[in-house]
Design brief:
Number of helices: 12
Low-confidence stretches: none
Mean pLDDT: 97
Helix content: 40-55%
Strand content: 15-25%
Order of helices and strands: EEHEEHHHEEHEEHHEHEHHHH
Bound molecules: octanoyl-coenzyme A
Strand order of the largest sheet: 1-2-3-5-7-10
Number of strands: 10
Distance between the termini: 28 Å
């Protein structure tokens, strides 16, 4: 499928990985309706493709995404935003993907761009990355999860500081705060993200999907319920050939060859 606002590749060097690049350079990858709709389609394609085990989502060197498209939103009325349920369907299409999505963030990840990165499963950042929720400067608030996800990731004090002042956080502060899992030199970011993704794609896709579901459950439930769910899914993994393969390979001192069955 050809896209207007995305470049989708299957890099040879990273088997099992789909690389999705946001591609609106004229607007620093600002997220408009077309881009977010296409992103949902590209992710659905990756979800339906047994040859894909992990997705890397990235932007350009200057910007992962500089926010939702202010020019698209500026003249909208409340009735239009409400009737279109602006970005709810597009956000769901991202949030409900069962395969892992890694955000590889270089340059600006602001507003909706920061929110999109936080919708991914984890964030790898270039040393040039800058995160922020500057919506307050526009007289609005984050609208695709920023107030909720940033607070869970970095805690109330830093989230309030970021959201109420609109200031940016550099990569080092983002890593210290738990927003980012690892930092790489900017010119190595995508290659390193592809290596991480290829490692994930080589695992059992069944175990990967269940592990993703379990970590996400930690945000939604109590400890007792979460641990009970973990035990149930842990037990259920013994129904798959991949568990036999993984454990036999360890005992036989060889690399496992997971089949997703
Ligand atoms: N929307 C539209 N266009 C943008 C955006 C944006 N968010 N960001 C940058 N652009 C455009 C600029 O207008 C400019 O276009 P042009 O050349 O036609 O004037 C081009 O990209 C390059 O930008 P700059 O010249 O400004 O580049 P600089 O290097 O000088 O500055 C910045 C880079 C600091 C990133 C600056 O562009 C900036 O501040 N951008 C806006 C950041 C921002 O406020 N983001 C939040 C947007 S609101 C939001 O994300 C709400 C999310 C919730 C929506 C959910 C709805 C339910």
């Amino acid at each position: 499928m050809a896209f207007e606002t995305l470049i989708v590749e299957r890099p040879e060097a990273a088997p099992g990985v789909a690389l999705i690049r946001l591609n609106r350079p004229e607007a620093l990858n600002a997220l408009n309706s077309v881009l977010l709709t296409e992103l949902g389609q590209a992710l659905a394609q990756a979800q339906g493709d047994d040859g894909v085990g992990c997705v890397v989502l990235t932007g350009s060197a200057k910007a992962f995404a500089a926010g939702a498209d202010i020019k698209e939103m500026s003249e909208k009325s409340y009735a239009e935003m409400f009737k279109a349920d602006f970005f709810t369907a597009q956000a769901r299409a991202i949030e409900t993907v069962r395969k892992p999505i890694i955000a590889a963030v270089s340059g600006y990840a602001l507003g909706g761009g920061c929110e999109l990165a936080m919708m991914c499963d984890f964030i790898l950042a270039a040393d040039t990355a800058k995160f922020g929720q500057p919506e307050i400067n526009l007289g609005v608030a984050p609208g695709i999860g920023g107030t909720q996800r940033l607070t869970r990731l970095v805690g109330k004090s830093k989230a309030m500081d970021m959201i109420l002042t609109g200031r940016m956080m550099d990569a080092a502060e983002a890593e210290r705060s738990g927003l980012v899992s690892r930092i790489f030199p900017a010119d190595q970011l995508v290659d390193e993200a592809l290596k991480v993704a290829a490692k994930i794609a080589a695992q059992s896709p069944l175990a990967t999907a269940m592990n993703k579901e379990l970590v996400n459950a930690a945000y939604e439930t109590t400890l007792t319920t979460g641990v009970a769910l973990e035990r149930r899914l842990f037990h259920s993994l013994f129904a798959f050939d991949d568990q036999k393969e993984g454990m036999s390979a360890f005992v036989e001192k060889r690399k496992p060859a997971f089949k997703g069955s």
